[in-house]
Design a protein that fits this description.
Layout (H helix, E strand, L loop, with lengths): L10 H17 L5 H38 L1 H37 L1 H7 L22 H8 L2 H19 L4 H10 L6 E2 L5 E2 L1 H6 L4 H29 L9 E8 L12 E8 L6 E4 L2 E2 L14 E12 L5 E12 L13 E3 L4 E3 L11 E6 L1 E6 L2 E6 L4 E10 L2 E13 L5 E6 L2 E3 L3 E2 L1 H5 L4 E5 L11 E9 L2 E4 L8 H8 L6 E10 L5 E4 L2 E5 L1
Parallel strand pairs: 9-15, 18-24
Antiparallel strand pairs: 1-2, 3-4, 5-6, 5-7, 7-8, 10-13, 11-14, 12-13, 14-15, 16-17, 16-19, 20-21, 20-22, 22-23, 22-24
């Protein structure tokens, strides 16, 4: 349905209004039979307009009844307002109908009024259309001013006007029209310039035929405004609805990546859109393009949440916001490559592991171990084997809110291999058989126990003591990895080409237990 529009006056209504103004002006000059006939013509025309309005209004109420059967929840608030309009219109109309009847009975008597205006089926009193004493100048003032009916009519019309304005508050043009039609302000003036109230202008010295016609005009205004406002409310039942011209089926998966043993979940929906209206999309306060596509750089790993809203214009000119929020996970690019022959962990050593699951961020991954312990240290896992021969690692990840197994991996437990001893002077590691005297007496010279620069393991060993064998005798050094003063003095006394052997090399490994390392033989150069 289209939005509500003000109902413009028809040519017939404009003609009636003009005739009313002309005849009212002519009354000031002379109340002739022809003038009274003119009022009778206007009154008859107004009654025809009222009958047409009542037929139209009945059709609107029937439309409301039908809408209630289709969508009671949406229609109910507007139906209640329409019923309230009908009640107030019927009450105002009935008051005027009774007022007209009392005026006619006062002038003609009840029997003559009922003879000239037969009651219709279901009527208690007729809606007066014919009077014999239509030139009577007193009865209008008697009932309207002396008995106070005019003041009651003023209040009823003002209340009806104010209620219609309340319902049409959002439509300034309609409000202006209602105020104009039901203007009951004291704006009339007598011939001598003295102010005259609305009631005095309507009833003081007016012939009965004119008073009845004016009252019929207000009955017509009431029915016309009733129909206009009910039509306005009926249009409001779908003013905020969306119009769609494109419907398509969409599959919205919760995730397009599913682990074995997991569950694939997708929402199957019908998407209905209006291609003539473009929504506005916002994510984290930033407006997106017209297509609503959201992209984000994934330079770091983890779980990232975002939120936003879609602003959609409605048919009534307002805009409705639809908020949303979601999240996504970023993991490191990974490939699982393993050499089953080398699936080994070393006892008495912190074995460093990197564990990842494709498509799952690090913070959603956990691991446990059988035959040892596994603890997390930053992005790494530290595995320490127990006393057995095998260690098994179990990996799981949180997927769709529940912990899901991702696999298990078995490793053989081996003791650390035997390290070697190396002589180091400054930045040079000597592994040849000839060592210069100057390198040995260098203050930075020392022994190191390790797996060498090409070793697969980087295990910290600590040299605790060693002894040197020279042609002049064996010399025990101080505790530690450096040559003692006695050892250095002995080497200074040796000749070039003398054989030297570093023996009884003792060290401790990660477990703190002492180990013996093979000697370092060399020739003094």
């Amino acid at each position: 349905m289209s939005g509500a529009k003000n109902c413009p006056e028809t040519p017939r209504q404009r003609m009636i209004g003009m005739m009313y103004l002309v005849l009212t002006a002519m009354l000031a000059l002379n109340v002739s039979t022809d003038i009274l006939k003119g009022f009778k013509m206007v009154d008859t025309s107004l009654h025809s307009s009222i009958e047409a309005s009542e037929v139209r209004n009945q059709g609107l109420y029937e439309d409301f009844d039908y809408l209630m059967t289709q969508n009671a929840e949406k229609t109910q608030p507007w139906k209640l307002k329409a019923d309230s309009i009908k009640q107030k219109a019927d009450e105002a109309y009935a008051f005027i109908k009774q007022f007209k009847y009392d005026l006619a009975v006062t002038a003609d008597g009840e029997s003559k009024v009922l003879k000239l205006n037969p009651k219709q089926d279901g009527e208690d009193i007729p809606d007066v259309k014919n009077v014999e004493a239509d030139s009577n100048l007193d009865v209008g003032g008697q009932l309207g001013l002396v008995e106070g009916r005019g003041n009651q009519l003023h209040d009823i019309l003002a209340a009806y006007r104010d209620y219609m304005i309340e319902l049409a508050d959002a439509d300034s043009n309609k409000v202006h029209s209602i105020k104009s039609i039901f203007n009951v302000d004291d704006v009339s003036y007598s011939n001598d310039g003295e102010p005259m109230s609305w009631e005095e202008g309507l009833f003081d010295g007016m012939p009965l035929g004119a008073v009845l016609t004016i009252l019929t005009k207000y009955q017509n205004d009431i029915r016309n405004m009733e129909g206009e406002m009910v039509a306005f409310l009926k249009n409001q039942t779908d003013a905020s609805d969306f119009r769609v011209n494109k419907i398509e089926a969409l599959v919205v998966p919760k995730s397009s990546y599913v682990m074995r043993g997991g569950r694939y979940e997708a929402q199957i929906v019908l998407s209905a859109v209006d291609s003539t209206k473009t929504p506005t999309y916002f994510v984290n306060g930033n407006q997106l393009g017209a297509d609503g596509k959201y992209t984000a750089g994934c330079g770091s790993t983890g779980t990232f949440k975002y939120r936003g809203q879609i602003l959609l214009p409605r048919n009534d000119g307002t805009t409705t916001a639809y908020p949303f929020e979601s999240e996504y996970s970023v993991g490191e690019p990974t490939a699982t490559i393993s050499n089953k022959d080398l699936n080994v962990v070393y006892r008495d050593y912190d074995n460093h592991f990197a564990i990842s699951v494709p498509g799952i961020s690090d913070d959603q991954i956990s691991a446990t171990a059988d035959g040892g312990t596994i603890t997390r240290s930053g992005k790494e896992y530290i595995v320490k084997p127990g006393t057995g021969n095998l260690l098994k690692i179990h990996v799981s990840a949180k997927v769709d809110g529940r912990q899901q197994p991702m696999g298990e991996y078995e490793f053989r437990i081996k003791p650390l291999p035997k390290p070697s001893a190396f002589f180091i002077s400054g930045e040079t590691t000597f592994d040849q058989v000839n060592i210069p005297r100057s390198a040995i007496i260098n203050p930075n010279s020392h022994l190191e126990v390790s797996y060498g620069k090409d070793g697969l393991l980087n295990v910290p060993f600590k040299v605790t003591s060693f002894m040197i064998m020279t042609p002049q005798g064996n010399i025990t050094g101080d505790a530690g990895s450096k040559f003692s003063n006695a050892q250095l003095e002995a080497i200074k006394k040796l000749k070039k080409g003398d054989f030297v052997n570093i023996v009884n090399i003792k060290a401790t490994g990660p477990n703190g237990k002492p180990i013996s390392v093979a000697p370092i033989p060399f020739v003094l150069n």
